[in-house]
Amino acid sequence: MIRLTDPEFNDIVDFVKNNYGINLAKKRQLIESRMQSVLTEKGFTNFTDYFELIKQHNSTEITAMLNKLTTNHTYFLREPAHFDFLKNTILPAQEKTNRQKDIRIWSAGCSSGEEAYTTIMVMMDYFGLQKSSWDYRILATDISLKAMDAAKNGLYSAESLKNVPQAWGKKYFTSKPNDLFELNKEVREQVTFRPLNLMENFTFKQPFDLIFCRNVMIYFDQPTKNALINKFYDVLKPGGYLFIGHSETVQRDSSQFLYIEPSVYQKG
Ligand SMILES: C[S@@+](CC[C@H](N)C(=O)[O-])C[C@H]1O[C@@H](n2cnc3c(N)ncnc32)[C@H](O)[C@@H]1O
After folding, report:
1. Which burial class, exposed, middle or buried, applies to 227 when counting CB atoms under 10 A from its CB (0-12, 13-18, 19+)?
2. How far apart are alpha carbons 225 and 20 in whole angstroms?
3. Which CATH number fits domain 81-266: 3.30.565.10, 3.40.30.10, 3.20.20.300, 3.40.50.150?
């Protein structure tokens, strides 16, 4: 077994925290055990040489490592209360007030795309025959290129569809061999996937109506979460919403967001 020394551990914890926000300080054993096969495959005999490769900012290598140490797991209609809120509160309000009929949404930390695609299906159902008169675009971003490649392919397992109602199964998916389901092109075309590290400065030309950043900040420490939440605030329209994961919170004294209901916040 290749051992992880104290300086190597401290070095990679600092690098990942400073560049990706992810706090690996309590993951020493996990790093040592999960990265063994990667080191062996690549012919490394110590962690220092492998970390040198990582520190060259090779995003494929970094995200392969982070994928082993964190989770990309997601599925359609995860945390459905958010999609009820979208359908019952946000979209009716948009219909009343949004004369341009354009809605901009960001799925930040989209993984394999289920969150963004669920949002599109909710909106397609909601607008029905009117959908062509609305311009709703979703930007979906992640650091994991592999997860986003899977998203663009649009092929999903039955496990990923476990919450999908039968009507959606019929309307939006085509059954494929090996128990896979292909998401229809009509839904896929409405989402733009782009690599984006949430630690970087945001340079969007237009603000968003709604941002999803769910189950992403679980690995970030509190100052990193607070700073990111403030950056989300800055790129939302007044009245826009932020959805975070149900196990996550926005600290009230460190942000200007209004609390609406658990894991739903609004820019005043
Ligand atoms: C568990 S998935 C969440 C997927 C989806 N939002 C959900 O709630 O099901 C977490 C995602 O956050 C991404 N992530 C972690 N740190 C990131 C960062 N600094 N910038 C962008 N994405 C990041 C990971 O690559 C992973 O795909």
Report:
1. middle
2. 12
3. 3.40.50.150
43: exposed, middle or buried (Cβ count in 10 Å: 0-12, 13-18, 19+): exposed
100-157 pLDDT per residue, tens:
999 999 999 999 999 999 999 999 999 999 989 999 999 999 999 999 999 999 999 9
Q: Is 263 in the pocket of ligand 1 (CB under 6 A)?
A: no
Please tell me the distance from the alpha carbon of residue 228 to that of residue 94, in angstroms, as a whole number: 26
The CA-based diameter of the chain, rounded to the nearest angstrom, is: 63
Q: What share of the chain is helix, strand, coil (3-state, %, to 5)?
A: 45, 20, 35
Specify the ligand 1 atom closest to the Cα of 245: 8
Contact yes or no for 41/1 (Cβ under 8 A)? no
Ligand 1 centre to CA of 128 (Å) is 30
Q: What is the pTM of this model?
A: 0.96
**Where do the domains of the chain lie?**
6-69, 81-266
Candidate from 62, 107, 142 with most ligand 1 atoms within 8 A of CB, to mutate: 142
Identical topology for domains 6-69 and 81-266: no
The top-level CATH class assigned to 6-69 is: mainly alpha
Cα(201)–Cα(198) distance, integer angstroms: 8
Regarding the beta carbon of 79 and ligand 1, being less than 6 Å apart is answered: no
Task: State pLDDT tens for residues 251-261.
Answer: 989 999 999 99
